[in-house]
Design a protein that fits this description.
400 residues; alpha+beta; six-stranded antiparallel β-sheet; 24% strand
């Protein structure tokens, strides 16, 4: 995830020779008064007149420099440091619409108890995830749906309880039916179950990245940034999660755009809509053939051997091991839980020692954790143009 720079504008003003402290402003005022030929002699610190002059001049100038200029005016001149209101003004200038929050929609596969029965699923029926970091993600059936006799399973349209990308859970998470649905024995979200991506209100950093990209996408030729701007206009897709392949085995005049989601897999329905928008509806450069694809998966078989503190009850032990598993799954983008955990991503080196350190930092019950990947003890997972995904994960306690 790209980060905006943190700039100390007070320090920049100081480097430019602008007085930024009350002492420096007082000295500047005294020098200016003397240079102007003032004959005032009662200029000691104890002089009531001179103290009044300094408070009337120095205090307002100090406020204007250190508060108004350094904290409000200068930061909002630049996309890199602007606050929300400044970013929204910049967005208007560049004809960029900040993305609103969206509720995820998708189809959940339900399995019947008896294949020969007609089963009706009422609108508003609930399907949810198990708790993830203490949060249960609930979906509601959008409309009454009938799974006819002779059909063991059926897909029912659902909508998330709330807006947000956290509801874009990976396949298999929506498996709990909290209130009995007559005739239904199980629920599951299959891969590509999402029809509308859930999205948070576009964060300041994400909007800043799109505005940064808008400058380089304003030319007539369709370079990468033009397509990045088009793709990132979709709610739920970050501009720094779009990766282009336009060299190597790709034919001249063609390119691929691989899209990574912050949570879960990239839905095929979203890819189909993007490809239609770009190629069929004419939003492509002259002669260009651009295809949007899901980022290629790099399957990872992982085992985590966990040493817990010696004094721990069995119930607490089970909770700790479950949390370790949930943290690892979040790191591989299966959920939005544990936001402070570093995520895997394409074209990067993911440190397993950092993963262990972050688990240690946040879990007092864990004394040690060792990872094996694909049957071998490794220090890093190195990714090319691919996203590491858990093919299998085993978390087990071991004795020291």
């Amino acid at each position: 995830m790209s980060q905006r720079p943190a700039i100390d504008f007070v320090d920049i003003l100081k480097q430019e020779g602008i007085p930024t402290t009350e002492a420096e402003l007082t000295t500047q005022l005294e020098d200016d008064v003397e240079a102007a030929g003032s004959n005032i002699s009662n200029d000691s610190d104890m002089s009531p007149f001179w103290r009044w002059v300094k408070s009337a001049v120095v205090a307002p100038v100090y406020y204007l420099i250190n508060t108004v200029l350094a904290l409000h005016v200068l930061p909002n001149v630049y996309v890199a440091t602007a606050a929300r209101w400044g970013l929204e003004l910049k967005a208007w200038e560049l004809d960029v619409e900040p993305k609103a929050a969206v509720k995820m929609q998708g189809g959940i596969t339900l399995t019947k108890a008896n294949v020969d029965d007609d089963v009706t699923i009422d609108e508003g029926s609930i399907i949810q995830s198990p708790p993830i970091a203490g949060v249960v993600y609930r979906l509601f059936v959008l409309e009454q749906t009938i799974i006819p006799a002779g059909q063991l399973t059926g897909i029912v349209p659902c909508i998330a309880e709330l807006e947000g990308q956290a509801f874009n859970l990976a396949a298999g998470y929506y498996s709990v039916i909290p209130e009995e649905i007559s005739g239904i024995v199980s629920a599951k979200n299959e891969p590509d179950y999402i029809t509308t991506l859930g999205a948070d209100v576009e964060a300041d950093d994400e909007l800043a990245l799109r505005l940064q990209n808008a400058f380089t996408s304003s030319g007539a030729w369709h370079i990468d940034d033009v397509y990045r701007s088009i793709i990132a206009s979709v709610a739920g897709i970050r501009s720094d999660n779009v990766f282009f392949q336009n060299q190597g085995h790709v034919e001249p005049g063609t390119a691929n755009a691989y899209i990574l989601m912050e949570v879960g897999q990239t839905p095929q329905t979203i890819l189909n809509d993007l490809n239609t928008h770009i190629m069929t509806n004419g939003h492509h450069g002259h002669g260009d053939v651009l295809t949007c694809k899901a980022i290629v998966d790099k399957p990872v078989i992982m085992k985590a051997e966990v040493v817990l503190v010696s004094v721990i009850q069995d119930e607490t032990k089970a909770v700790a091991l479950a949390e370790v598993e949930n943290r690892i799954r979040a790191v591989f983008r299966e959920s939005a839980a544990y936001q402070k955990m570093t995520r895997t991503r394409p074209q990067s080196r993911f440190s397993l020692s950092l993963l262990g350190s972050e688990i240690h930092t946040n879990m007092a019950d864990v004394e040690s954790v060792r990872f094996t990947v694909d049957g071998q003890v490794q220090e890093d997972i190195i990714s090319a143009l691919e996203q590491p995904r858990l093919q299998s994960l085993i978390v087990e306690e071991v004795t020291p």
